[in-house]
Write the structure tokens for this entry.
Amino acid sequence: MPSTLPEGEAVPTDGSLPTRSLEKLGEAPFGAYVHVPFCVTRCGYCDFNTYTSSELGPGASHESYADTVLAEIDLAARVLERAGRSLPEIETVFVGGGTPTLLASDDLGRILEALDKTFGLADGYEATTEANPDSVTPESLATLRARGFTRVSYGMQSAVPHVLATLDRTHDPARLPDVVRWAREAGFEQVSVDLIYGTPGESLADWERSLETALALDPDHVSAYALIVEDGTALARRVARGEIAAPDDDLMADMYAAADAQLGGAGLSWYELSNWARDDAARCRHNELYWTGADWWGFGPGAHSHVAGTRWWNVKHPAAYARRLAEGVSPGHGREVLDAETRRVEQVLLESRLRDGMPLERLDAAGRAAVGGLVAEGLVEPAPLDERGSLVLTLSGRLLADAVVRRLLP
Ligand SMILES: C[S@@+](CC[C@H](N)C(=O)[O-])C[C@H]1O[C@@H](n2cnc3c(N)ncnc32)[C@H](O)[C@@H]1O
Ligand code: SF4
């Protein structure tokens, strides 16, 4: 969740949604995202809405934050109950950050419990928490599992000390085998690791070493992200000053291909451009819900939500967020009601990154006319695509995904 928010139209103070969106609630799967806006230090590349102070005012400290989220859960129930139907069950929960594991495990457990009591967690639900390898213990993981979390996602990023140093990562990479084992011993169903490639100074050999080290952990799932030099970050300033080089596109492409080969060779298949899973059950169902345009409520400062074509986002600062909820007012800052064409374009952008593919029916005539050329150039899997008539990128297509999408949306 980037830290810069769009403006949009104002959200009503009671948080109410347009009737035409509320009426469609329940037609798509429903999920919950919970943002935890705290970190011990800020990594130089990170643009997320997170703060290093543990005390940001009433309702916005590590200790009081869970209660503030519980107030937004109550508000969500009031808003969504206006549909006059029962609240949708929650299929997936994702607690992200920031660093969720800076909160007490019992507080994360209370948030999950409140979601369950208010909405109900569906049978076979998925509940992920992101975790920093430095902020978990066998006990905290056992508590999280006992309180209902099913999946843990560790921010590993790299196994190579000079790469971690350039990223300003402070965690000890030697802890990874321990924290993964503790998660297994605690009974987590899925363990995932996040990696970043393309850090200035990182060689292909460094990246291959990180992949090997990650695979030695035997994860169920790996996310591998190309480093983005976000405006306004310490990393961007260092690149602008010429202290370090910007990531190199050709090297990044080699790194992506190496990731696909190494992860694939170890039995993890891609199912989204930056995500690989052991099998279908190990996919992150919560992210799939975003990529397929389903519905979710995003709790926390700066969090985005989407219900049937209405998207809104909360005020950014944790103190402002807590103040609004204490006053009984929606923390929503702005919203937009998406028209059919905007939704179509977003679906093409997101679904063309999926191994399950993008249904060709999403394309207009000009987009459809481009498909033949993309197949001939080896960027899209050849016809008949798949049995549902969906467009799937080849490895070359994944390397050039943005250019492919531009041709599908002329
Ligand atoms: C915002 S973090 C939250 C998890 C946790 N705080 C951590 O860093 O381990 C989620 C993931 O986003 C990725 N990420 C954050 N900033 C990025 C950037 N500028 N470029 C690429 N990936 C980034 C990292 O891989 C990170 O694990
Ligand atoms: S720990 Fe994660 S959320 Fe926090 S600053 Fe680093 S990348 Fe960003």
Summary: The chain has a mean pLDDT of 94. Residues 65-81 form the longest helix (17 residues). Residues 16 and 79 are 5 Å apart (CA to CA).
